[in-house]
Specification:
This protein is mostly beta strands. Among the domains are: 127 residues, eubacterium ventriosum atcc fold, CATH 2.60.480; 59 residues, SH3 type barrels, CATH 2.30.30. It has five helices and 24 strands. The strands form eight sheets. Strands 11, 12, 13, 14 and 15 form a five-stranded antiparallel sheet that branches. The protein has a five-stranded mixed barrel with strand order 19-20-22-23-24. The protein has a three-stranded mixed sheet with strand order 6-3-9. A hairpin with a 5-residue loop joins strand 22 and strand 23. Helix 1 crosses helix 4. The longest helix has 17 residues. The chain starts with a strand and ends with a strand.
């Protein structure tokens, strides 16, 4: 059930909340999304850095909810202490569960209404403080969240790296403009350039790179599937994964897979990619097919034999049974090939 950097495959719930509510790891909460805290989403990061001695929820997770004041209170929940820069702390999912179980009810938050994701282990490192870095990191996050194509509740931003600079945006008359490549996907490692100006003149720029993690439900094989089997609901399940750590052609839309067939065998729990899927064969090699010969105001039909298999829209060779002539046509339907006059 794990993939990438240790993230559990969890659908619309936190593993620690499932442990709290059901006594077992993983799965979906019986009342998830129905409690008074249905708007609370907490997505924990796998690796985190903080400049502070006291580690809080906000240092290791992104928090979103309908009430901004509630979000801030959740972010300020104390987690642990890191004595000095360079110190690293490993926090397990069970420890996170205990912290939230003790603190969320005091904020009036129903555990059953909280959604999100948590890795098996969170690694937190304290780094030396840098106010300038925090300013650039804040600019980076604001830009990504306002320009990305993803829902904010599906996204976390981690591992932000800021280039060296002493220029502070917003001080001493310094303004800035964020520059991004027009082809930027806002997925995985995402570079931005922050350009600084004073009195309209460019005075420098800083490259900032972070990792945009996007959690979406992707198609997986619910059982072992043989080549050329047609996908139905019983063969496919959709599981929330960080698509930043997956191939670019994973399938997130059921419409891209249902009714189509595999082009190769798939193992149980294997992620299904677009390249693994094709339209089913409408014509098999050796089939007797209907040949449609069309022209403006004219339609002629005859019988032919398929010399190869073909899918909807594909060009294929057919032998006209009457004339013995081999023609090339387009598959238009079940055992039907259209040939230009």
């Amino acid at each position: 059930m794990m993939r990438g950097k240790g993230y559990l495959s969890i659908i619309c719930c936190l593993i620690f909340l499932s442990i709290l509510c059901t006594g077992a790891g993983g799965g979906e909460l019986p009342g998830a999304g129905k409690g008074p805290s249905a708007g609370v989403v907490i997505n924990f990061h796998n690796r985190c850095k903080t400049e502070n001695e006291s580690v809080t929820i906000g240092d290791i997770a992104s928090v979103s909810c309908d009430d901004p004041r509630l979000c801030e209170k959740i972010r300020n929940i104390y987690v642990a202490t890191l004595a000095s820069p360079g110190t690293t702390l490993n926090i397990s999912a069970d420890q996170v569960a205990d912290i939230l179980r003790k603190n969320l009810p005091n904020l009036g938050v129903s555990l059953a209404g909280v959604r999100g994701t948590v890795p098996v282990e969170i690694v937190v490192t304290r780094v030396r403080g840098s106010k300038i870095r925090n300013i650039y990191a804040g600019i980076y996050k604001d830009y990504v969240l306002s320009h990305m194509p993803w829902a904010k509740t599906d996204v976390t931003i981690s591992d932000i790296r800021v280039g060296s600079t002493t220029i502070v945006p917003g001080k001493n008359g310094v303004t800035y403009r964020v520059v991004a490549d027009s082809s930027l996907s806002f997925l995985g490692n995402t570079p931005l350039s922050i350009v600084m100006f004073r009195n309209g003149d460019r005075i420098g720029s800083v490259r900032v790179v972070g990792k945009v993690n996007v959690f979406k439900k992707v198609a997986k094989a619910a059982r072992g599937i043989k080549s050329h089997e047609v996908f139905t609901k019983s063969e496919v399940r959709f599981v929330k994964e960080n698509i930043a750590e997956l191939p670019h052609d994973v399938i997130t839309d059921p419409g891209d897979i249902m009714g189509k067939e595999t082009v190769r065998s798939l193992r149980v729990n294997e992620i299904i990619r677009k390249r693994d899927v094709a339209q089913p064969l409408l014509v098999q090699k050796g089939d007797v097919v209907t040949i449609l010969i069309s022209a403006p105001g004219l339609l002629i039909t005859s019988k032919g034999q398929a010399l190869e298999g073909g899918r909807l829209g594909q060009m294929m060779r057919v032998k006209n049974i009457a004339t013995k002539r081999i023609v090339i046509g387009m598959v238009k339907g079940h055992k039907t090939v259209q040939v230009a006059f």
